[in-house]
From TrEMBL:
This is Cobalamin import system permease protein BtuC. PANTHER family: ABC TRANSPORTER PERMEASE PROTEIN MJ0876-RELATED, FERRIC ENTEROBACTIN TRANSPORT SYSTEM PERMEASE PROTEIN. Keywords: Cell membrane, Membrane, Transmembrane, Transmembrane helix, Transport. The complex is composed of two ATP-binding proteins (BtuD), two transmembrane proteins (BtuC) and a solute-binding protein (BtuF). It is found in: Cell membrane. One of its GO terms (cellular component) is plasma membrane. Belongs to the binding-protein-dependent transport system permease family. FecCD subfamily. The keyword Chaperone does not apply. It is a multi-pass membrane protein. GO terms for molecular function: transmembrane transporter activity. The chain crosses the membrane at residues 20-38, 75-96, 108-128, 140-162, 174-195, 216-235, 262-289, 301-319, 331-351.
């Protein structure tokens, strides 16, 4: 291909250079937010102590224990979960060509809630403990996590089966997700009719998504699944760019649209199921992160995917930090904060978009 006076290549290089600079700035912001998050809480830790601990030069056993055992895994969980949920939302919006698509629209979150309620109420994994701080606890968190995960995959299987029978069109997939989500919500409410006070409180406790629930082992599982999923999404970045132009255009460019759509939804379901089965229901991150980053770097998935990974991590880590400092010494679950922050931000983006 020939370009006169190399004008287009220079403009293209400037375009990509600007996007890369923006992504690097996002990474720097995320790093400083990580230091701030670890240093914030009921017990404040000097940021210099946090930095020294992270590089292995701290001399304070007290700070080491708090940082390495509690705050660092919590902060890293927020980063991993934010990246996974944000990119899952972006993938759904791209392959379904629906700006309102998210794990909630797809019904995965509702399926996870049903699975947790089934485990707590039917299998009896919710009990009461003698503690004024947290009187309710999930007696068997592994069973609850497993059942919630299986519920997510079963819901996904039903949705994809319906979608496959109707040639995997975006409209059918979204409507099937809405229907399955409504069915799971109704089933959860039905189970709650037979729950005692302890079980009902345990169900509510689980639905409050909270990144502090994960330990290092669970964080490792989420990290592996998230990284593999993100690699898959980025590998198909050109396919998503083609699908944005329409199914017919994508097909003419050699993209197997139905296969990309179905496999993409399976990957979205797995990553969302893993995160929500460990942490509970966390909303709005997968919905608003892609919209925010599109306004910054545009619609090119070469930059939108890494940008959404960074933005999702920033949003969830910031929300977790706010939840720990807003009502000290109490901790507000991150899902509550994301809902409070996410709803106004999303409404602002919608209004601003329509005004344009």
């Amino acid at each position: 291909m020939h370009f006169d006076n190399e004008e287009l290549p220079v403009a293209y290089l400037q375009y990509t250079r600007t996007k890369i600079i923006i992504l690097r700035i996002g990474i720097i912001i995320l790093f400083f937010l990580l230091i701030l998050s670890i240093s914030s809480g009921a017990v404040s830790i000097p940021p210099i102590e946090v930095f020294q601990t992270l590089i292995g030069e701290s001399v304070s056993p007290k700070w080491n224990k708090i940082i390495l055992s509690i705050r660092l895994p919590q902060a890293l969980t927020a980063i991993v979960a934010g990246a996974g949920l944000g990119c899952a939302g972006l993938a759904m919006q791209s392959i379904l060509r629906n700006p309102l698509a998210s794990p909630f629209t797809f019904g995965i979150a509702h399926a996870a809630a049903f699975g947790a309620a089934f485990s707590i109420i039917i299998l009896g994994s919710g009990v009461m403990q003698n503690s004024s701080i947290n009187p309710y606890v999930i007696d068997n968190p592994f069973a609850t996590t497993f059942v919630a995960f299986i519920s997510c995959l079963m819901a996904t299987a039903v949705i994809l089966l319906i979608s496959h029978l109707k040639r995997a069109t975006p409209e059918v997939t979204v409507l099937a997700g809405v229907a399955i989500g409504s069915l799971c919500t109704a089933a959860t409410m039905f189970l709650q009719l037979f729950a005692d006070d302890t079980q009902l409180a345990a169900v509510v406790f689980w639905t409050f998504g909270d990144v502090s629930r994960a330990d290092w082992g669970e964080l490792a599982i989420m990290a592996v699944v998230t990284v593999l999923s993100l690699v898959y999404f980025y590998y198909h970045r050109w396919d998503y760019n083609a699908i944005d132009a329409g199914d017919e255009t994508a097909s003419s460019l050699g993209v197997h649209v139905a296969r990309v759509r179905i496999v993409g939804m399976i990957v979205v379901s797995v990553i969302t199921a893993v995160i929500m089965s460990f942490l509970g229901i966390i909303g709005f991150v997968g919905l608003i992160s892609p919209h925010i980053i599109r306004r910054i770097v545009g619609d090119d998935h070469r930059f939108t995917i890494p940008g959404t990974i960074i933005m999702g991590s920033i949003l969830l880590l910031a929300s977790d930090t706010v939840g720990r400092v807003i009502i000290v010494p109490h901790v507000v679950p991150v899902a509550v904060v994301t809902s409070f922050l996410g709803a106004p931000v999303f409404l602002y983006l919608l209004i601003r978009g329509y005004n344009r």
